[in-house]
């Protein structure tokens, strides 16, 4: 069967959407000072910031999957009352300005915070201004993207497979593991990618809660912002590096890990 | 933000009364230009000027009921970028020379910029000074949580000069993107000390205490302002600059912790 041609009423806005999303990127490429590329790339701190960005975004995604998939299941499948309120609450970070999110994290996990002051008093551990704080800030901002994606996938999945598994004697945990999870795997993968991308670009909550220190908390978006204060050309190059690395990573993952689900 | 709302509100109310009541609003200001300015004056000013300039803008509006003064407060470098990218404005006030240079080099200034005030660095500590900070040397203590501005932004560049001059190696836990971000962390009690401007300590009120830094006297930060060549309202722009440079304007700046240039 041949795929249908795109109807004209869809084609025009779709083309506009592409232009709107791609042109700023083209601007970035056009303005890149290619001749200075080498020098700017090997500048001290660039590799460090890039590595920190990749590591912290990946950790934030891992935490989000471990905690967010079960949360998505609760939102999609459980019959608990107040789910609508719960959904609204856990998606608050989506609408919250990230800087406010960073201040909110201080109020809870800062050394004067509700949990943080207790932690500091009992263990001597303080979270702000550490790499852990970067991961926490990124997780706070990015996890809702995963939760929403996975919840959508769970709602779209055919519940009759789960019913069948139950009739055949599988307990609920086995059903989740052997039936539900494989069924929504593409949704989880897509959610994880969204989550990772959001974490990689995170700026506001990170610079507020984790601060900015090269090697410890200075991720690429922070390095880009500060470079912009002194040398806009360097900022463009740094943005480009972040962009290329993230696109390359996503393409690699798409082939290796996401498999047919995302490619379909 | 609330102050800006209040400024707008005050302008509206005063504008309304002045329409019916004649010239008493204009007479109440010492620095009027005859009260005949009209239109909208747009001022781009360094974030540290927020409180003083909002106040001065209100005074100009009181003296000129048909004039609306609007501000864009942000980091000087962000403002300089906006101006070179074509943002329309009448006046630019920069917290340092480098960012003013960006604007003058682009040929956007009308005449030479004027140094109108200065700011000096101070150590800000949370109320009660829990870590017992006494001077610049404490910012080199490993066990303290310390914030400074990133070297890329003006307050960070000034801080570097001060540390170098004093022979102190700072051990910051974070290099903040602007001075207010550093101050916020002091207000929240999340850092033991931060190097900020004297004006920020005044603006923060009781939540923050200031400790003078004698070593900072050699790194006083000059503030410059200019009217812009493409000013949509050059007359009002001139009046605002005159107000800032007047006795009245200088007093308002000093009350906010600035010092005479």
Automatic annotation (TrEMBL), chain A:
Its membrane topology: Multi-pass membrane protein
Cellular localization per UniProt: Cell membrane
Major site of localization recorded for this protein: membrane
UniProt keyword Kinase present: no
Parts of the chain that traverse the membrane: 52-76, 88-109, 129-150, 179-199, 234-253
Superkingdom, taxonomy of origin: Bacteria
All copies of domain ABC transmembrane type-1, residue ranges: 50-253
Keyword terms of this UniProt record: Cell membrane, Membrane, Molybdenum, Transmembrane, Transmembrane helix, Transport
Region forming the signal peptide: none
PANTHER family recorded: MOLYBDENUM TRANSPORT SYSTEM PERMEASE PROTEIN MODB (PTHR30183)
Family annotation (NCBIfam families): Mo_ABC_porter (TIGR01581), modB_ABC (TIGR02141)
Protein's UniProt name: Molybdenum transport system permease
Species assigned in the record: Geodermatophilus maliterrae
TrEMBL record, chain B:
Coiled-coil residues: none
Membrane spanning residue stretches: none
Keywords from the named record: Metal-binding, Signal
SUPFAM superfamilies per UniProt: Periplasmic binding protein-like II
Protein family membership: Belongs to the bacterial solute-binding protein ModA family.
UniProt-recorded name of the protein: Molybdate ABC transporter substrate-binding protein
